[in-house]
Amino acid sequence: MRVALVDYDSGNLHSAEKAFALMGREAGAEVVVTSDPAEVARADRIVLPGDGAFPACRAALDAVPGMVEALHEAVIARAVPFMGICVGMQMLAEIGHEYRDTAGLGWIGGEIEAIRAPGLKVPHMGWNDLRVLRPHPLLDGIATGDHAYFVHGWQFRVADPAHLLATADYGGPVTAVVGRDNIVGTQFHPEKSQAVGLRIIGNFLRWRP
């Protein structure tokens, strides 16, 4: 099994590569960091990380010739298992409103809105409990109360509640995990979430949608 971590100059991939490679050894997976759309199209699993502002990440993804098309062909046309992380998860939405309205990939209905948490600092940064809303293979072995590491000021408001798999509490419910069909996304960073994050990465590598 070959796992492609998409490199589009939007975040430090070192920790993600290290975590996926660690769990990949257990799952018999080869992990590659690549900016080559052909490599992404051939992969058996695709991971799209993302750090920074939504418009900048979307522009950087669009700037890699053929990458959006390769992702769409693999994930939507051929149902290759896909995982978005942080802004990589947010780009699954139809639109983001950070700084300016920016189209997302539109793979999961909804939009990216600012976190409103009166009395709390935004961005939401640090460890927070997860609240698991519905069972999913990605969350096998993960329970409400387990901790994950977040760094974000915006969140995914899904259009269909069935696509919301887990939340965290930060002045109210904040989207933590989304998913539908062969597509999942985590707002938190599994590669920085210690045992919980490694469990989620391992679950993704073993997942057969």
From TrEMBL:
It comes from the Bacteria. This is Imidazole glycerol phosphate synthase subunit HisH. It comes from Paracoccus versutus (Thiobacillus versutus). Pathway: Amino-acid biosynthesis; L-histidine biosynthesis; L-histidine from 5-phospho-alpha-D-ribose 1-diphosphate: step 5/9. It holds the Pfam family GATase. The gene is hisH. Its EC number is 4.3.2.10, 3.5.1.2. It is found in: Cytoplasm. GO terms for biological process: L-histidine biosynthetic process. One of its GO terms (molecular function) is lyase activity. The active site is at C86, H189, E191. Keywords: Amino-acid biosynthesis, Cytoplasm, Glutamine amidotransferase, Histidine biosynthesis, Hydrolase, Lyase. IGPS catalyzes the conversion of PRFAR and glutamine to IGP, AICAR and glutamate. The HisH subunit catalyzes the hydrolysis of glutamine to glutamate and ammonia as part of the synthesis of IGP and AICAR. The resulting ammonia molecule is channeled to the active site of HisF. InterPro entries: Class_I_gatase-like (IPR029062), GATASE (IPR017926), Imidazole-glycPsynth_HisH (IPR010139). Residues 12-201 form the Glutamine amidotransferase domain. PROSITE patterns: GATASE_TYPE_1.
